[in-house]
Design brief:
16% strand, 20 helices, 656 residues, alpha+beta, 5-stranded antiparallel beta sheet, 3-stranded antiparallel beta sheet
């Protein structure tokens, strides 16, 4: 039984490190069953023997004999699994669960539009770190651990990396093997939290000297810890990273220690450690979890027994017999023959080959039933394990329905995976704050993708996140196959729930990403501008390159464009959120200026059109004496004068 020591309450470093290591060793001794369970499930998945997980222990042993299941030294060992249901089933399930990427989506409480921009900037900050640290691969590793072992685990921590000749802090996320984690689970039935957590690792002595040079002398005195003696002179030292969580007003502690020396000590103000756990299923007793491998362990054993029986019958009764009466044919002449058993006789018939059935067909059918049961227990079919889809399943809607049906079995595991992303995102925010407020403040920055190249986001730009109430929502409601995505978005467009530009924002097709980014630029630029105005209370005038609207040629009335529509939506959303009127007046001013710009531009266009039309008309003809004047007034006067004129008198002598 563990004699629990509150090492964190010790004021003397020597007493603290002694009590810490003693308590940790006692917990490991009491949880020896946990180490055996880890080795057992590792054997089942890898289909080979392992002796442990300390340095030098996880060297693969010789494969067991395929007939009787013993190794060369005669020790008992698990037999080879020809049909490894555990590995094939788990690999198929993990591939299905991890098929759709899960990323954090930040949303302000009640959709506060004023914090939308900072929330979106923080989204980019988080996603950039998750992408640069290859967290998708890390989480795949941890999800597989959860399927094989009682839990999977990741650790978010701060390390250093040399950039441009200087050591700079880096936030990192690593998968941690379950054998490296320990906690005292005596209170697990009363609470699912771990008040004290231990992370043990083995580090090269020279690396410890480089990281903690001021303790170099004590590090040199520490003994090498390689239990099996198979480390090959690597000179590794056991390091324990212990976390005592804060409870109420009591502030916890973090201590990194080797034998006889504390390397690092700090206050730990959190109620959780830097670890995020994921479980395939929650256990009824304790906080460990139930793995997928333990679910089908009995089915795998039945499969092994059935295959072993079939193989034994084949070896004993499955040979072909050569019947012959040729006395000249001797056994020596057939030496090396493994195909036939030769039987001599005096029958006058020619030699013949006879093959006896060595196993009943019911036994083969039973092996198939057991195999299918294993996949059903895991929630995948043999078809899914081989990457096939049912014949005739082609349409996007059918693929969407098929995906929903197959995902129902993994709904709990999907949720666990999403919560892993949520936890890691929260851990990143904590580590960023620690760097920003530490003894040597550092404004951590990440490189984020932009529409044109990259840009840098500093934590100082998003640190005000603490002033807002923001929740993290991982994943996406969209299906992951392109055909099903197109069907899903197309139906929403037909129903009038979204328009074309919103549809482009929803889908995520890498082949069309470049075109979607360009097409989405007008909407995204307007949204970013309005959110900056609401956040900073500073006015930004409309730009004639934005979609401001137009003029109806028939009614000569203003038609609202995308910018006016979005500004009105932000205005109304701000009303609901209780934003001050003087701030919302900025949006009013923007809409008025946008309309004025459109109307002025339309007036200028009309004037230009009139001038152009006038310029295109032919010039008036010059007036010629004796001809009609060009103007209507002059023509009318001429007609009136002509009507009142008398004909000239005839000249005498000229009549006729």
């Amino acid at each position: 039984m563990t004699t629990y020591s509150y090492w964190q309450d010790e004021t003397d470093d020597a007493a603290m490190v002694d009590n810490l290591i003693t308590t940790f060793d006692q917990i490991c001794a009491n949880q020896s069953w946990f180490d055996e369970e880890l080795k057992q499930f590792t054997r089942l998945y890898l289909n080979r023997e392992v002796t442990g997980f300390k340095p030098g222990e996880y060297v693969p042993m010789v494969a067991p004999d395929e007939v009787d299941g013993t190794v060369a030294d005669g020790s008992d060992a698990r037999r080879i699994m020809v049909w490894n249901l555990i590995k094939s089933g788990i690999d198929a399930a993990i591939a299905k669960i991890m098929m759709q990427p899960a990323v954090p989506w930040l949303r302000t409480e009640n959709g506060k539009v004023k914090a939308a921009r900072i929330g979106r900037l923080t989204e980019q900050y988080l996603r950039s770190i998750l992408h640069s640290k290859r967290v998708f691969r890390t989480n795949t590793h941890s999800m597989r651990d959860a399927a094989i072992y009682p839990f999977g685990c990741t650790k978010t921590y701060v390390t250093t990396q040399r950039k441009r000749g200087k050591l700079r802090p880096q936030i990192w996320i690593d998968p941690i093997h379950p054998s490296r984690i320990r906690w005292d689970n005596q209170t697990s039935l009363d609470s699912n939290t771990q008040p004290t957590l231990y992370h043990v690792s083995w580090i090269l002595r020279r690396d410890l000297r480089a990281k903690w040079p001021k303790f170099e002398e004590r590090i040199d005195l520490a003994k090498e810890d390689c239990p099996s003696g198979e480390c090959g002179g690597r000179d590794m030292i056991r390091v324990i990273d212990a976390y005592d969580m804060s409870v109420g007003e009591r502030i916890g502690k973090r201590v990194i220690a080797i034998e006889g020396q504390i390397l690092h000590k700090q206050d730990w103000p959190y109620e959780v450690g830097p670890f995020e756990f994921v479980r395939w299923q929650d256990d009824l007793l304790g906080s460990m979890g139930i793995s997928a491998a333990s679910d089908i362990e009995g089915i795998q054993e039945e499969m092994n027994n059935t295959l072993r029986m079939i193989k034994r019958n084949k070896n004993q009764y499955g040979d072909s017999f050569l019947y012959t009466n040729d006395d000249r044919l001797t056994i020596e002449e057939l030496e090396g023959n493994e195909t036939f058993k030769v039987l001599k006789g005096t029958s006058p018939n020619p030699p013949q080959v006879v093959t006896q059935p060595f196993v009943a067909h019911q036994m083969v059918e039973w092996a198939g039933v057991v195999r299918e049961s294993g996949f059903e227990q895991l929630g995948v079919s043999q078809m899914a394990a081989t990457g096939e889809k049912p014949a005739g399943l082609r349409s996007g809607k059918a693929l969407l329905t098929f995906d929903d049906i197959n995902s129902a079995r993994f709904s709990n595991v999907h949720y666990q995976r999403q919560q892993l992303i949520v936890g890691e995102s929260e851990q990143i925010l904590r580590r960023s704050r620690e760097l920003h407020k530490g003894e040597a403040p550092y404004d951590y920055q990440v490189k984020a993708r932009a529409k044109k190249g990259f840009f840098y986001i500093k934590w100082g730009e998003v640190k005000d996140l603490e002033d807002y109430d923001i929740s993290i929502h991982p994943g996406s409601a969209l299906p992951h196959t392109p055909a099903a995505q197109a069907e899903f978005v197309g139906l929403r467009m037909q129903e009038g729930l979204i328009d074309r530009s919103e549809a482009r924002l929803m889908v995520d097709w890498p082949d069309l990403a470049k075109f979607d980014r360009l097409a989405n630029a007008p909407r995204e630029q307007l949204m970013d501008q309005f959110e900056r105005m609401l956040e900073s209370n500073e006015y930004e005038a409309p730009d004639d390159h934005q979609e401001l609207g137009g003029i109806d040629p028939e009614t000569n009335q203003y038609i609202e464009g995308l910018g006016h529509m979005l500004a009105k939506q932000y205005y109304l959303r701000g009303k609901v959120d209780g934003i001050e009127e003087k701030t919302l007046a900025l949006l009013d001013q923007w809409m008025e200026e946008a309309q004025q710009m459109v109307e002025e531009a339309a007036g200028i266009v009309r004037e230009q059109e009139e001038l152009l039309a006038a310029a295109q008309q032919p010039p008036p003809a010059p007036e010629i004496p004796g001809t009609l004047p060009a103007s209507p007034e002059a023509a009318a006067q001429l007609a009136e004068a002509t009507a009142t004129m008398q004909p000239p008198a005839p000249v005498p002598g000229m009549e006729g």
